[in-house]
Structures are given as C-alpha cells and as structure tokens.
Amino acid sequence: MKKLMRGLRQFQDNYVPEHKKLMATLAKGQSPNALFITCSDSRVQPELITQAELGELFVIRNAGNIVPPFGATNGGEGATIEYALKSLNVDHIIVCGHSSCGAMKGLLQIGNLEAKMPLVYNWLIHTEATRQLVEDNYGDLEKADKLDMLVGENVLTQIENLRTYPAVRSMLHRGNLSLHGWIYNINDGSILAYDAERHAFVPPFSDPSKAPNLEHSQPGSHMPGEHRLARGQSERIFKGSY
Ligand SMILES: [Zn+2]
Fold it and tell me: Ligand 1 centre and the CA of 64: distance in Å?
C-alpha cells in the first residue's frame, strides 16, 4: 500500500502539473477513440500497451474480457457498451485477450470451480461457447496449446456476443463501427490482431488505417464457425512463426 500512496503523490506532483491543459480540456467532457474491453489481469494495461493518453480509451475490464450476450445478465458491460456507442460516439471496439489468462485456465477446468468459486463459475458460463468449441474441435491439444486456443477463441466469442447488442448491430449495419480482436502476449508485450480474411491472429499492420478489421470480411462471414482458427493456429499464436 505504501508504494501506491507514493505513486499517488508522484502523480499529483509530476503528472498533474505537466498535463494541466489536457486535464482542463477533459474536465469539460470526454471523446475517447475506442472502447477497449480486456481482462482484469494486472499484467495487461490498456493505456500502457497502446500508449494512450488520458481520455483516449473507454475501458471495460473483467475476468476473461467477457461480453455476456445481450439480455444474459444485467451487469455493467451492456450499459457501458451502450453508453460508449450512443453517448460518446465511439466507433471502434477492441476486445483484447491475453496469454496465460487465469480466467481461461479456469474455463479449462470449469467443473472444479462450481463449488470452489461459484461466482467465477457463474461468470465463465457466459463464455461456455468458447469452452465447448475448443473441447469439441481441439480437445486433443496439449494443455498449453489448448489454453492459447481458448484465449484466441474467447476473443472471437466476445466479438460474436458484441453483435447481439442492438446498438452494436445497428451501427455495424450503417458501417459506423469497427470491431477488433486482439491478443496481448504478456511475455514480450507483442500484440496479435485478428484478420478475418486470413482467419488468423497476425501482427497488426504498421499502417493503422490498414489494421485488421473484422468488418472487412464478406457479409455473412461472421456466422458462427467461420471465424474459427485453423487447426495448428495455436502453434502460431504467441510463437511468431507466420
Ligand atoms: Zn485474463
């Protein structure tokens, strides 16, 4: 706790005076560039990995970067998504999973969680589609590879879940919204972005305007099953062998 208190003081002594103008502008309102949905994991920091400044990212964090399907729960995720789109006019949503995700490890052994951590169990049920897809199609993978596969598939499941929200669907229909699926590698800080055309997580392009975007795919290509990773994809995720 002492370290946090020291941090508070340093922030107030250094950062605040250096960013007075920005803070005064932001005090009048926010206009973030993107809604960033990621895991609560302490090793993933959206502002750090994107080098975003105050006011640039609207963020949802929870265990496993899960977006419950519309109507599945009255949690804060839906309200936050709706607010971001309708009030803040955010036009990019990034779902960012990460390597070695504890929530995905839990999903691998969800049967053990029901009695031990009932709240975690109830939460992970929202991404049961991910677990079942990986178990049914990649059940023979080694545990570490299966975890990588779960991380990737989980990101894609949440993208599908996002599409169940009326505000998302409506904006996608008008072409006013881009959805992005990312995986952050906590080992080396690298990011892979899902490219629907290549059906793979690939390094983002250096030209941000050409960044992989799920909406570049043909109509209907987001139907369940079509975004799935090719067998062997898990060997490419995090290992850089493209
Ligand atoms: Zn995680």
Answer: 5
What CATH number does the domain located at 32-236 have? 3.40.1050.10
What residues have their beta carbon closer than 5 A to ion ligand 1?
39, 41, 101, 103
φ, ψ dihedrals at 51, nearest 5°: 55, 40
Rounded to an integer, what distance in angstroms lies between the CA atom of residue 83 and that of residue 90? 9
Q: How far apart are CA 69 and CA 126, in angstroms?
A: 7
- Map tokens 């490219």 to a residue: 195
Residue 44 identity (one-letter amino acid): V
Q: Which positions are catalytic?
A: 39, 41, 43, 98, 101
Give 180 or 211, the one with higher predicted confidence.
Answer: 180
Contact between residue 155 and residue 182 where contact means Cβ atoms under 8 Å apart: yes
Q: What is the pLDDT of residue 198?
A: 87
Structure tokens that stand for 109 in this block = 């052994």
